[in-house]
Amino acid sequence: MPHSFLNILQSFDSITLQEMDGVKLMDRTDTKFTFNIRNLSSILEAAKVDYRILDVEGNRISRYKTLYFDTQNFKLYNQHHSGKLNRYKIRHRTYLESNLGFLEIKFKNNKGRTLKTRIKEIDVPDLKTGKAFDFLKKILPFDPLILLPKLWVNYSRITLVNKTSAERLTLDLNLEFEKDGKKRNLNELVIAEVKQDSKILSPFVAIMKNSHIRQGSISKYCFGVASSFSEVKKNNFKLKLLNVNKIINS
Prior knowledge:
The protein is α+β, with helices and mostly antiparallel strands. It has seven helices and eleven strands.
């Protein structure tokens, strides 16, 4: 990683995990952007006036390992592909620096809001039994027994928190898709996501506008599935996939 942006990370005011409890934003609106990592230094420099950075025991970049579950025929992916609202994602995420793990359900409703529920599970659980099964059974409108592990999506994350309003910003880099032991790395790409409890003016969105970076992104899971499985539908994602590849190769 270029030292220049690592130095900028050190110049941010910090926030701890405990202090972040007030901005969990489990019910929120999301706005996404994608750009090439060479733009990261100037974007961070512009952001440090308005945002604090999450610091976990001296680490200002945290590593995440995420295993996504879907049905045999990718029902959850296909719902996203066809633009269906009231759709679900099911995943287990490990936060490597803090040694925490959660089984999570993400629900995108027909009002465009993202609702997240989760239970603590340090390791990837068996979804067919015990606490994990009970959690999924209670929330999902389908039988959890049809879910299978499909794809690992791993990355490093910088988390910024607005100093004055309920807004969190994540910057994901070193993206890696892993399937059957084979890995694909996309180190040139940064995926930024602005998370707010209501649509308020965001300093980061203004930075993106000034940098001529347009809103829009494909979800990491859908991007990974479309890139890793030849048998899935991807027509509706073609333009997004082209845009991401253009950013990577620009």
